[in-house]
Write a structure and sequence with these properties.
Layout lengths: L12 H10 L4 H14 L12 H5 L4
Helix pairs in contact: 1-2
Length: 61
């Protein structure tokens, strides 16, 4: 018996999220959701992790 997974590309983000929550062992669905969420946040501001004591001093700013 072959089990076919649903077409994640046709699901809305909300549907895909619900599917992932219901099928937590489905890695393909999870990675598809993460890829879609990352694609939606391309313009997000990214802050690098401070590496030096001087950088850590600037964190509260």
């Amino acid at each position: 018996m072959i089990i076919m997974s649903p077409d994640f590309n046709t699901m809305s983000k909300a549907e895909l999220r619900s599917y992932v929550l219901a099928h937590r062992d489905d890695n393909e669905a999870f990675y598809n959701l993460v890829d879609r969420l990352k694609a939606d946040n391309q313009d997000a501001v990214k802050y690098p992790c401070p590496n030096t004591p001087e950088d850590w001093a600037k964190v509260p700013e």
